[in-house]
Design goal:
The structure holds two protein chains of two kinds. Chain A is an alpha+beta fold. Chain A has four helices and six strands. The chains are: A alpha+beta, B alpha+beta.
C-alpha cells in the first residue's frame, strides 16, 4: 500500500467530500444502469440514508485520504440477513457504499478501504461480509473476486411496458 | 394432469406454504450451506414476507392443484435507495418463489411469476425484480425466459 494513503474513520469535516464522491459514483453507475439519480441532492440523500442506517444498527464510515484530500469512501453497515440464514450467521457487514475518486482509481485505494472494512468486521466479532456490484462494473467486480468474494446471488430486473 | 389454479393466498394455506418454504430452505442449503433448515425458521420466513409487504403492500399467490398447495409466490412493493431515479424507485420485488419438488417443470413457477408481474403492472409500477442464488440454474433460466435481466450481483466472503 502506498505510504501517503491513510484509511480513517469519517469526521464531520468530510461530509461534503463524501457526498461529492457519491455523486461521482451515481454518475459512473448511471452509464451502466440508466436508472440512477444523478443530482447532488440525490447523493446527499444517499449519504443521509446510509448514515441513519449505521446510526440505528451499527457500522462504520471509512475514508481514504492522501495529501489531506479525501479520495475514497466506504460505508460498512451491520445488517441482519433474512431468517432463512442460520441464526448464528445472520448478523453480517454489508458494504453499502464503496467509491474511489475518478482520478485516484487503479491505485489500490478500493482494496485498502475494503481491507479496512474487513478489519472492522472482524473487530465486531463478525465474519460474514456481503457486497453488491452492478453487472458491467468489471473493475469493481475483478477487485472483489481477487479479494475472495464469491458470487452469491444475482438480482434481475424487467422494465414493464 | 390439469394445470393448477393460481389464486390469492388464504389463511387456510398458511401451514402448507410454510412447508414449501421449509423445502426451499433445504433445497437452497444444498447450494449455499448457510441456510437455517428447521421448520421454525421457515415459519419466520413466512412472517418475513408479511413484514416486507407491510410498508407499501404486495401480493401472495398460491398454485392450487386439486385442493393441494403446490406453489407460492410473494411480491412486495419495494422502495429502492435514493440513488435510484424517483420515477422508477418503487418496484415489485419477488421475495419468495417456490414450487413443490413433485410439481416442478409443469410451468407453475412461470404462472406464479406472471401473476406477480401482473400485480406489479396493476399497481402502476414499471419495474419488476427478483433475486436468485448463483448456482440455481433452473431459476436463472426461468427468469431469463420471462425477460428479467441480470443487473447486479451480490458477492460474499466468510472471513478467517
Amino acid at each position: 500500500m502506498d505510504k501517503g494513503l491513510i484509511i480513517r474513520e469519517i469526521t464531520g469535516a468530510d461530509t461534503q467530500n463524501v457526498i461529492d464522491l457519491l455523486l461521482q459514483l451515481n454518475r459512473f453507475e448511471h452509464v451502466i444502469m440508466p436508472n440512477r439519480a444523478t443530482s447532488l441532492e440525490a447523493a446527499a440523500a444517499s449519504f443521509e440514508s446510509v448514515s441513519s442506517r449505521i446510526a440505528e444498527n451499527g457500522g462504520a464510515h471509512l475514508v481514504a485520504e492522501r495529501g489531506s484530500r479525501v479520495i475514497g469512501y466506504c460505508a460498512c453497515a451491520i445488517d441482519l440477513a433474512p431468517p432463512y440464514i442460520r441464526e448464528e450467521d445472520r448478523r453480517h457487514v454489508w458494504v453499502a457504499e464503496l467509491v474511489v475518486a475518478e482520478d485516484a482509481r487503479r491505485q489500490g485505494v478500493g482494496e485498502a478501504l475494503l481491507n479496512a472494512a474487513e478489519d472492522y468486521t472482524r473487530g465486531q466479532g463478525l465474519r460474514h461480509m456481503l457486497i453488491g456490484v452492478l453487472a458491467g462494473n468489471d473493475g469493481a467486480d475483478r477487485l472483489y473476486q481477487r479479494m475472495g468474494y464469491r458470487h452469491y446471488s444475482t438480482e434481475r430486473l424487467k422494465t414493464l411496458t | 394432469m390439469t394445470s393448477p389454479l393460481i389464486r390469492d393466498l388464504e389463511d387456510a394455506d398458511r401451514e402448507a406454504v410454510i412447508d414449501l418454504m421449509w423445502l426451499l430452505n433445504r433445497f437452497e442449503d444444498g447450494i449455499t450451506a448457510d441456510r437455517a433448515t428447521d421448520r421454525k425458521s421457515a415459519k419466520s420466513c413466512f412472517q418475513d414476507d408479511l413484514e416486507k409487504m407491510r410498508p407499501l403492500g404486495g401480493a401472495q399467490y398460491v398454485a392450487d392443484q386439486a385442493g393441494k398447495v403446490v406453489g407460492y409466490v410473494c411480491c412486495a412493493i419495494t422502495q429502492g435507495g435514493p440513488f435510484i431515479r424517483e420515477d422508477v424507485r418503487t418496484y415489485g420485488y419477488v421475495t419468495t418463489l417456490v414450487v413443490a419438488p413433485d410439481a416442478r417443470r409443469l410451468g407453475i413457477g412461470e404462472a406464479l411469476m406472471r401473476a406477480a408481474e401482473d400485480f406489479t403492472r396493476g399497481q402502476g409500477l414499471r419495474s419488476f425484480a427478483v433475486g436468485h442464488l448463483a448456482g440455481n440454474g433452473g431459476a436463472a433460466r426461468l427468469y431469463e425466459r420471462l425477460g428479467l435481466r441480470a443487473h447486479a450481483i451480490e458477492r460474499v466472503k466468510w472471513l478467517e
